[in-house]
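Minimal example, chain plus alpha-D-glucopyranose.
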Amino acid sequence: MKTIFPYSFLILILFTGCSPEEEITTITFNLGRDPTGAHYAIIELFEETYPNIKVQVVESPQDASLQHDLYVTRFAGKDNSIDVIALDVIWIAEFARAGWLLPLDDLALTLPMDDFLPGPVEACTYRDTLFAIPWFTDAGLLYYRRDLLNEYGFDEPETWNDLQIIVDTIRRDNPQMNGFILQAEQYEGLICNVMEFIWSHGGSVWDESGHWRTATPETEKAIQTLIDFIRTDDIIPRGVLTYQEEESRHIFQDGRAIFLRNWPYVWELANNPATGSNVVGNVGIAPLPGEKPGLHAATLGGWNLGISAFSDHPDESRKLIRFFMDYHHMKQFSLEGGRLPTRMSLYKDPDILQRSPHFEDLFEVFINARPRPVTPHYSQISDIMQVNIHRALLGRISVREALERIDAEVLALFERYGK
Ligand code: GLC
């Protein structure tokens, strides 16, 4: 008996990595489906470092609007099965105001917060309190077929008109090719794409004195350009009205499109032969065009890690978030997934720059990416915009009608709930 007990004790330690008194806590990590899968390696490392914490990954659909609605239902029911959650930049004000997220100022004290990009940090702050830590950031970019543009003697397009000329010229010889692909299904991604058209035509949705107003000549022109590209000029195929990020990525990496608007993750996947990409080594990347040279704009996207206010494991959850934010772990995550790190020092890291040289050239685009309206009512505003703009893209209502309806509905919303 005397010899057997210490022996079985040793076996227990070897197998579980922790003493019998230490219980294993399982926390859930909730995120949208990530086609890069780069988080799994970091989680494995975390579980090795903290043998008494297990992480169960719970993936929801990649569609940001669907994810939002799923989480709202679960939070409203005070569901305690969510611990760590990856939050889209646009949800934080809404979820924090509803009391669904734990304040994370204490966690921030253990991190070099001045190394984090200011835009995403601001997006994670609600009423001077940090409710999430920026995990990776996103900015809309233009991908193009470098080989084709070279063959036809074109530089990167600076204006929408340049893009149109390039598409028309190349398609004359290659009519089976799609010109420009983007995401215009009725979901959150549509708003990201549309805002880039609006800003790059000098428009906006708030006027200078902070009043909501979309029905302006600039915004009307921006959306009309998008509609003409789709419906009359044959620059953008009509299929985009049902495309999200992944559908459009696949068409581009199959070699069936000259241009693609998408987020930074596409670089790594389109250049990786293991994904079945037909365009490895032939992908160029640039800021999106503008109506005039230099008037380009990118929508600020990105995902941030927060903790549910109903979690039973806030301490273990803090450990996981802290782990993801470590320089080396964020570096590994970015190297494997091509995601834009939120720590600025990583943009000078030689390994990162070797793998993603555009991180240096496009840094200005990333830090100047523009936020969608920051208000706890953003999701409702987005729904209003999605419905009306999508109807205009389908040709069911005019652009002016769509913008007037958006303004009337958003103003009614503000009147009812405040800004
Ligand atoms: C990306 C962005 C996110 C945006 C979503 C729209 O995931 O990071 O901010 O809402 O795309 O599809």
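The chain has 19 helices and twelve strands. Residues 64, 88-90, 138, 188-189, 192, 245, 263, 301-303 surround alpha-D-glucopyranose (CB under 6 Å).
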